[in-house]
Structures are given as C-alpha cells and as structure tokens.
Amino acid sequence: MKRRDELRIAHIASTIWFILCVGYILTLALRQAGVRWWVVFSLSGHGVLIALVLVSLYLFAIFRGISSSQKVHVEHPLTSTIYYAVFYVTTPFLGTLAGCLGMIGVKTINQFLLGIALGTLGVTFLVWVIVDPAIGLLEMLLPASRKHCVQRQAEAKAQREQKQQYRQRLLDKVLAAEDSDRRYWHETLKPQAEKLAALLTSETTDLRQAECEAVGIGVSAWQTGGVSCMRELRNMAIAICEQRNDNISVVDHISFWWDGIGNWRAAPLA
To answer: Structural domain boundaries of the chain?
Structure first.
C-alpha cells in the first residue's frame, strides 16, 4: 500500500512537470511567433504542437488512465510489474534527463530550457502513447495471456448468467407469491365484493350510509393486503356488477369512496 502511494505521488509529480514543460513550449512558441494572447492560434507548426499535446493527453487517458486499473498479471507479465510502473511514472523525468544530456554545451538559458522541455515532451509522448500500448498489445498476443483472457471472459460470462438466473428466480418467486395472494383474496374477499357490488347497484338515497359501509370494507382490505388487495377487491366488485347488468359498465364509486385509505388515491376527474 505504501509503495502504491509513493507511485501515485511520483505519477502526479511527473504529470505536473510534463504539463509545465508543455506550457513553456507553448509560451515560447507564441512569443517567437509574435501572436498576441487574444488572437486565435494560427494553423502552423504551433497549432500542430497543440494538437500533438491534446492527442497525447487523450491517448494517455485511454491507454493508462482507464485500462491500467484493469491489468491482470498473467495477461500483462511486464507492464503489471512494479519495475515497469516505476519506469512509466518517471518517464517525464527521464525525458528531462535526456534533454539535459542533449543540450550539453548550449550556453543560452532559453535554448537550454527549450531542449529540456522538448526532451520531456518527446520521451513522454513516445513512452505513454506509442511504446506502452504497443507492449500491452504484444503481451495480449502471448499464448498464456490469450488463454487466461479467454478463461477470464468465460468466468465473467458465467457470473453474469448466474446473476441473471438469480434475478429471474427472485422475479418468478415474487410473481408466484402475487398470484397466490390473488387466488387467496379471490376466495376470501368474495362476500365483501358482493356487498360492494350491491352498494354500487342499489338505488338507496342514503349515500352517506353506503359510503361508510364501503369505507369499512376498504379499510379491512387494506389491513389484509394493502393497495393490491384493495385493487383486487374493487375489480371483483365491478365484475360482479357487470355480470348482473348484462355487461353494462357501471360508475366506479368505489375509487372515490376509498380515496385516502392507506396509499389509495382516486383518479382525478377529467
């Protein structure tokens, strides 16, 4: 864990140094070109340099920022080692060293700093964007790597299928429980459904009394099985009414009578 933290700190430091070198190159190029800050960069060598940096950062994010955490030692025997990790995170500093060696004998400070920055940029781009992906590709072509990759993908597929089967069993269990509850309610709630059907079809003038009886039946259904039980009881009562009235639709007063019982809410009138 300590070694990983040290590598992370070194990686952050090398990345910051790389960005500083790129910024120095851009600043020097702008000054030499005589372009003011608010003017759009010209499509010359300076624009190519900017595009190169952006592509480098983009490919770095793809090949290392995303895939590095998914490396398997068997499939990547070289790039997953601690020695390669140290080499990788210190690449900008190695580029700086190469730039210093290449600028030996240069007397002007600006040219010396430019050589260091170009060495950092060149070596970092070469390793992070070209060498590292190429090595990773070659590792995946090894017989042991391909065999392990196939096995890992097969295991992942088996795990996904197992999870899918588990979810399907849970769903079947829930549906079976709902179907069992529905059959039980259909048997036990038939007397209450007939009472509700009688209240719907009765021509009594005491609507308050009918509503009180319907509310009592609704509360009992809510205590038995919640909204699902209430919905089943309502459907049974309406079906009984339609059977008695030769399939003529009836006004659904039950939904309004039960409005406010538990989670039951009546549909708003159009």
So the answer is: 2-141, 189-257
